[in-house]
């Protein structure tokens, strides 16, 4: 029987079987196979090696206002074109909408986005190299079912669009530093500077310059349970869905502006050249 892989799959059925049978630690397997620890744990906790069905059984022609806000924010942050955004919304978030419906709810690109810096091959031709990361902190005030106060930390490399995000229930200066170091370890680019928005970090490495914008965001209020906005949260914690979203964007689909590479492959190729 042929097993059809999910659009954002980073593993094959053979690798999944290996994960389920191996005695190695989650971290050892992640390093060996070049995948995240989260992906390792996800497949170790399942009995089957095939993907869960993600194609919507019922296509909705209307979206909740919270979903509209979410997909527009996702488009603005990622710069994803419509077809790629649809795959993230359907396959990763589990929101069952058609391409036409999604397009109808997308607001026109902001003036800021239209004047955005060059990306991909065009950026390289202009001499702009992927040596910087922007880091952001967004406080969240969620429904009590989702733990109330939460904190979204996310980062982006502007040339490729490569992204990294985590969700935390509490924050401390140590956590900011630990998260930033994990980000630098995970990013496949040769990062020489970071710019933080809404928090400060102290790095142990000396070769990365830090620019800080201390202005903090007000908490984003979410009055309804996340499961009503993001159906996949019924099956996986919100933090896991967030990681899957980044994994799909970084590794799941090639982009024309990156020379038909994924953001991950684009940055890895540049690093090998250097």
Total individual domains: 3
Task: Name the structural class.
Answer: alpha/beta
pLDDT averaged over residues = 85
Spans of at least 5 consecutive residues whose pLDDT stays below 50 are 1-8
- CATH architecture of the largest domain, by name, is 2-Layer Sandwich
Biggest β-sheet strands, sense, barrel? 6 strands, mixed
Number of helices: 11
CATH class of the largest domain: Alpha Beta
N-to-C order of helices and strands: HHHHHHHHEEEHEEEHH
Based on CA atoms alone, the radius of gyration comes out at: 19 Å
Helix content: 25-40%
Number of strands: 6
Separation, N- and C-terminal Cα atoms:
44 Å
Portion in strands: 5-15%
Q: Shape, please?
A: globular
In words, what does this structure look like?
It is a single chain. The longest helix is centred in the C-terminal third of the chain and has 15 residues, at 238-252. Strands 1, 2, 3, 4, 5 and 6 form a six-stranded mixed sheet that branches. By secondary structure, the chain is of the alpha/beta class. It has helices at residues 13-21, 26-33, 37-44, 65-78, 82-92, 99-105, 111-114, 120-125, 173-186, 238-252, 263-273; strands at 132-141, 149-156, 163-168, 193-197, 209-213, 220-221. It contains eleven helices and six strands. Mean pLDDT is 85; it is low at 1-8.
């Amino acid at each position: 029987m042929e097993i059809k892989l999910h659009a954002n799959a980073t593993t094959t059925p053979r690798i999944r079987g290996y994960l389920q049978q191996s005695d190695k630690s989650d971290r050892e397997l992640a390093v060996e196979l070049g995948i995240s620890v989260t992906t390792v744990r996800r497949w170790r906790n399942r009995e089957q090696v095939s993907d869960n069905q993600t194609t919507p059984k019922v296509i909705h022609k209307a979206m909740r206002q919270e979903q509209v806000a979410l997909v527009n924010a996702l488009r603005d942050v990622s710069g994803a074109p419509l077809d790629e955004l649809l795959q993230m919304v359907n396959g990763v978030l589990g929101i069952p909408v058609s391409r036409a419906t999604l397009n109808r709810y997308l607001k026109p690109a902001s003036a800021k986005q239209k004047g955005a810096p060059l990306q991909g091959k065009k950026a390289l031709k202009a001499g702009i190299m992927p040596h910087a990361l922007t880091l952001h902190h967004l406080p969240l005030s969620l429904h009590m079912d989702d733990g109330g106060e939460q904190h979204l930390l996310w980062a982006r490399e502007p040339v490729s669009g490569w992204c990294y995000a985590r969700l935390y229930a509490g924050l401390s200066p140590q956590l900011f530093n630990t998260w930033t170091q994990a980000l630098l370890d995970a990013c496949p680019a040769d990062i020489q500077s970071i710019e933080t928005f809404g928090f400060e970090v102290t790095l142990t490495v000396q070769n990365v310059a830090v620019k800080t914008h201390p202005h903090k965001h007000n908490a984003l209020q979410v009055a309804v349970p996340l499961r009503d906005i993001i159906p996949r949260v019924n099956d996986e914690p919100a933090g896991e869905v967030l990681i899957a979203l980044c994994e799909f964007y970084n590794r799941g689909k090639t982009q024309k502006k990156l020379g038909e590479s994924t953001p991950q492959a684009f940055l890895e190729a540049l690093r090998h050249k250097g």
